[in-house]
Predict the structure of HIRAN domain-containing protein.
Amino acid sequence: MQELTLAVVGIDFPNPDRSRSNRRYELLLCVPGEAVSLVPEPKNPHDPHAVAVFSIRGVQLGYLTAERAPWIGARLRAGEEVAAVFQGMGDTAAYVRVRFGGGVPTLPVGREASKPMDEDFYPDPEGSEWGA
């Protein structure tokens, strides 16, 4: 089994559907660990190796990068078993976690969880006196 994180680009382009659905908005609805679909687009006029990424709601999120798409697309066309989940979103790209060979991809532990707290950071005690 092999797992890897892949970038999803083109997140600021509108989709070609009738409603011109917004990819960035759909990405904001995605939850880490939520299933996504990888769909090869051999008839794509810009890149015959393009692999589109769709949310669980069927809305396109973008495309795998041009560097990874030929390799991933070839594995998909060969019938290799693959599962993909939404991992997260950055400023200019989103990220999906892909697992080949069966099973569900595991999300890596986030950097935030392993980052030490600043020495001068003192959180408020649990609960507040004014009930917020």
Confidence is low (pLDDT under 50) at residues 112-117. Residues 87 and 107 are 7 Å apart (CA to CA). The chain has one domain: 2-103. The beta strands are 2-9, 35-40, 51-54, 60-64, 82-89, 94-100.
